[in-house]
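re: ur question from earlier - yeah i can do the single chain one, its not a big deal. heres the input i used so u can compare w yours
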Amino acid sequence: MKFSDLGNDLYTGRRAVPVVPKRKTFYIVSLVLMAIAIAGLGINKLNLGLEFSGGSEFRVTSTSLPSDYEFKARDTLGAANDTQGVRVSKLGANTVRVQTERLNDAESARVAGELAKAFEVSTDKVSSTFIGPSWGDSVTKQALRALIIFLVLVGVVLAIYFRNWKMAAAALLALAHDLVITVGIYSFTGFEVSPATMIGFLTVLGYSIYDTVVVFDKVRENTNDAFANGRLSFAQAANLAVNQTMVRSINTTVIGILPILAVLVVGAIFLGPGTLLDLALVLFVGIVIGAYSSIFLATPLLVSLRSKDDAVVDLEKRAARSQAKRAKEAAAVAVPAGVGSGSTAIDQRPVGNHEGVVRGAETPMAHEEEAATVTGRQVHKYAQAGPRNQPKRAPKSRRK
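and the output i got, formated as tokens:
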């Protein structure tokens, strides 16, 4: 089966992934991942960059760096066995970055001279920078303030746009899920958290909420139709919406991470640690986690939050009666298979995983009055059948 055919079947309801019916499974998976991420924060903590923790940084530029540059840098600072206080990394092909704890002016001058001697370069090829802890605290506070303002504004805008605070709550819970797991991955892997990483966090949250809004738009459309005609319950209409937008979400995610993956490979091999690599890394991790939450978490959370609403409970009863009635009518007109040469059987199997929804067998013009989708919305009978805009064939008398 082609991927395009699968997408068409998911959209029309012929096939369905049981995202909402199996929502407890996805809840358990997400809770386990979040628990592991929180445990990682407690055990390893975050590898905060110099901008947050404060300290001194030295950069040595040389036309030919030795292969044992890390050992030379650590040995120069007397930290050959130190894995915490001194961090050594390579930037590009010709620069070594050495980060240490806070040093005074005299100590910085001495270390710069020793590094120049160890790497056999002049002292003007060694630069030193000092970042105080107060500046790092200021950056941290500003980043947290930006995150809180972002979440508050997103919640208010979503509540106004969808006119339902439970949709905003479900979207924010999905965002919290993305944030916790992404931070947990950083704690386990030891990737450095820099200001570029914080920018990446906010970008990822924006991407995730965008994908969730697209899914919720379809959920609102389907559930409004369900409330109007009573053909599907709220959970069934929401599950159909997830399936209808699933292929789009997957395609968007794949297209988004391909250039980021290219930047990651180039940065890791040729550029080394830096702003570009930090930003690409958090974008790659966050977009993948955000795609998962938009498909498998946000809508199930919305269904759970609204499951006790009076209108939703009433819709479920109406949908059950409507589906039972349609099943009874289909059974009444069904002719047993094999009786007569012209007999036509009615396939009463559910469409995908939308329980209680029946459709006619794949016969020409079968149940033409039925809509092409399980939502009950009228769709042109040729909307999903074959290529469109085909030219009409000329009569035989006019053919040459």
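Confidence is low (pLDDT under 50) at residues 340-372, 380-390. not sure if urs matches, ping me
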